[in-house]
Each structure stands twice: as structure tokens, then as C-alpha cells.
Design a protein that fits this description.
The complex is a heterodimer. Chain A is mainly β. Chain A has one helix and eleven strands, in the order E-E-E-E-E-E-E-E-E-H-E-E. In chain A, strands 2, 4, 5, 9, 10 and 11 form a six-stranded mixed β-sheet that branches. In chain A, a hairpin with a 2-residue loop joins strand 6 and strand 7. By secondary structure, chain B is an all-beta fold. In chain B, strand 5 and strand 6 form a beta hairpin. Chain B is globular, with a radius of gyration of 13 Å. The termini of chain B are far apart. Classes of the chains: A mainly beta, B mainly beta.
């Protein structure tokens, strides 16, 4: 089953903050975040592993709540370059061992000046 | 390095025709993946390979076949194309020994089946 992402779309002004959520019905071992700009390939942002630390670089960070089987991606002081569609990819322990990810349906983020 | 390349970039097929999509990577990666991307559906895994000569089914394997005869190439075949296979196809690869688990994606192939 695909993880569920929310919101499906969000429009922000430059400098505002955004939170994108990813929920799964399975017990998760890993959550991967990717960003895809229109007409381009997805690009890796970060991975969070069960029992691992919250990740982040610059103004983009993420958390992983193992008990709730959820992950959240935080974008602070958004920039125009943050526009795109964000996907979470998840795996349970078995899928992680098999190197498989199941991607969510995506969250389209639009940043306006 | 060219990274991950996909051939062709665009293709239009008639229902019932066959074709092969080629994915090539020059990073010596062990793992390779084929995804399809449809509006509102995100990325769905078709088939994947954890090494030369091995393949496995993903979420949506029906109507597709794959082969990994050489480590650097991963081929996706459509034996009898159907309109439901109209999609954008992405190939990805990643190395086995990598703590980031990052998948590197190719630029995609846009396939239309009429």
C-alpha cells in the first residue's frame, strides 16, 4: 500500500514555512524524501531510519515517528527554489532488506514571490 | 560521468506494438529500478534488480518484462503495449555499499500508447 501524503498541494509565499506529512499503514523501517521539479527526475533529499536521529540540512529537516508510522518534512523560510513535488518513499524491515521503496502520491509545493 | 541515462526520451506506440526501454548507468551501481509515474499516483515500482543476472517484481509488474544481462544496463520490455501503459518511465540506480541509500534517477522516458 502506498503511504499517504498530506497536504496534496500547498501554495506559500517566499519566506513562509511548510510541513509535509507522510503516513503509512505498515510498521516502517525507513522513510526517504525526494523532490521533483516539473519535467525533471526526482532528486534525493534525505533518509530517516528507525531508531535514527532527526535529519536536516540548511532549512529542510525531517522527523520520523516510529510509533505513529509517520514522517514529516519541514521547510523553513521557503525559497523559490523549493518549488516542486515532494515524495516520501517508505519501506518496512522486509522491503528495506530487499532494497524496495513504496512511494507516496506526492505533495505539490508552489512558492510565490 | 553521464550518471543514469535512458533511451529513448519520447516514444509513441500503437496498441499491440512492442518496444524496449534502455537504462544505462556508468557508476558501477549494483541495484537498478524501473518506475512508472502517472498523474496523481506518484512513482510505482515495476521491476528491480539487485545485481547482474537477477530481477524481481515490484508493485505493478504485469505487462512488463526486464533483463539485466550486464551490470550497467537494465532493459524494460513491453511485449504488447496497451493504452494503460501510457506513462512516464523512470529508471534509477544505487550502489550496494552506501549509507545514504540514495537512488539516482534518469531523466525519464515519456511513452504514449494510442
Amino acid at each position: 500500500q502506498q503511504p499517504v501524503q498530506s497536504p496534496q498541494a500547498v501554495i506559500l509565499r517566499e519566506g513562509e514555512d511548510a510541513v509535509i506529512n507522510c503516513s503509512s499503514s505498515k510498521a516502517l523501517y525507513s522513510v526517504h524524501w525526494y523532490r521533483q521539479k516539473h519535467g525533471e527526475a526526482p532528486v534525493f533529499l534525505m533518509i530517516l531510519l528507525k531508531g535514527g536521529e532527526q535529519k536536516g540540512h540548511d532549512k529542510i529537516s525531517a522527523s520520523f515517528n516510529e510509533k505513529k508510522q509517520q514522517s514529516s518534512l519541514y521547510l523553513t523560510a521557503s525559497q523559490l527554489s523549493y518549488s516542486g513535488t515532494y515524495f516520501c518513499g517508505t519501506s518496512d524491515w522486509k522491503d528495506f532488506g530487499n532494497e524496495k521503496l513504496t512511494f507516496g502520491t506526492g505533495t505539490r509545493l508552489t512558492i510565490i514571490p | 560521468n553521464a550518471g543514469v541515462t535512458q533511451t529513448p526520451k519520447f516514444r509513441v506506440l500503437k496498441t499491440g506494438q512492442s518496444m524496449t526501454l534502455l537504462c544505462a548507468q556508468d557508476m558501477n551501481h549494483e541495484y537498478m529500478y524501473w518506475y512508472r509515474q502517472d498523474p496523481g499516483m506518484g512513482l510505482r515500482l515495476i521491476h528491480y534488480s539487485v545485481g547482474e543476472g537477477t530481477t524481481a517484481k515490484g508493485e505493478v509488474p504485469d505487462g512488463y518484462n526486464v533483463s539485466r544481462l550486464k551490470k550497467q544496463n537494465f532493459l524494460l520490455g513491453l511485449e504488447s503495449a496497451a493504452p494503460s501503459q501510457t506513462s512516464v518511465y523512470f529508471c534509477a540506480s544505487r550502489p550496494r555499499r552506501d549509507t545514504t541509500y540514495e537512488q539516482y534517477f534518469g531523466p525519464g522516458t515519456r511513452l504514449t500508447v494510442t
